[in-house]
Amino acid sequence: MQTLWSMLGTLLILATLPGTLELLFLTLSGIVPRHRHPSHRTTEAQSLRLCAVVPAHNEENGIGGCVASLLACEPGRHEVTVVVVADNCTDSTAEQARAAGARVLERQALQRRGKGYALDYAFSILLPENHDAFLIVDADTAVEANFIQATAKQFAQGAEALQCRYLAGNPEESIRARLMHVAWLAFNILRLRGRECWGLSVGILGNGFGLARATLEKVPFDASSIAEDLEYHLRLVRAGLRVQYCEDTTVWSAVPNQGRAAAGQRARWEGGRFRMIREQTLGLALEVLQGRLRLLEPLLELLLLPLAFHVFLLLCLLAVPFPLGRILALVGLGGVCLHVCAALYVGLAGWRDALVLLYAPVYILWKLTIGRHIFESTRAGAAWERTERSDKP
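Now predict its structure.
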């Protein structure tokens, strides 16, 4: 029996140790005070042609607000074009986008549905038009007024790709929304700060990211899975490119409040992530062993399971009568607590954000109940679907 427990403990250690190491690394690095590098006047003065690309599927209620938010940005000396990709729409998304002042590209290809396909189609048209860089924003998003100037500044200074701060736009609407807001403080701010501290590629979050023209020419955006952001980021890193963190501006997107919509969105996000774990882990590990050490952190990040599942496995490890496993489980759980506290700190969270953590055990149990839907979303044929929400960015 002891041998069985030892085997189980060893398996749980292998499943959780990479994630624990990654969490501790990013937490300690993420709380380091940010160092602002002096900008050069020559790059600040450079005028760029920027194209904001908004992939949209049946977003007639919210697309107008998103376009208005982009057009209200302070462009400075930069030339800005807003392009909406109305992808397989059956509503008035295209008409609403045009009425709001955007250029619209309409696409109908029912056998090739997904955000990745929509972006690939848009770039095939827009790249020949000589835009200097592209900013990708979801259709339910509001952007900060300095969005254009902050991103243009980093591109002018040589950024190959960038990811802006990405926060929940409606944390006050429900307990689940506020808990997601706290999770995003960790996933979308603290972890990016940690990678930026060491000059690593910070990752792509799927919303509020930018790509230089040369980057798209070198690595075409043909990622077609429902985790297209993670898939494309791994291609960028393998190509020797880096995504920088643009902490000077923010994009906001509403998270779903209804149980069914929230479950569907989480299942797609995490199912896509588990698919990437299945498809990419072995290849990344082999490349690291061959000396491509720049891929070590992306590999560890890939092996870090969604936090709810990571905590669940640590609790299982704690329950197994295996001394080494229990020690590592306590270290891992302590690392999770430190990670959340650090996220609250760097995200300038309020007391309501801290208080909502009392709901975390319920949230973890809820995540376990949607395991079947997550598994279904790991299939290669899983498609991009619109999440029902309040349409309030």
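Confidence is low (pLDDT under 50) at residues 39-43.
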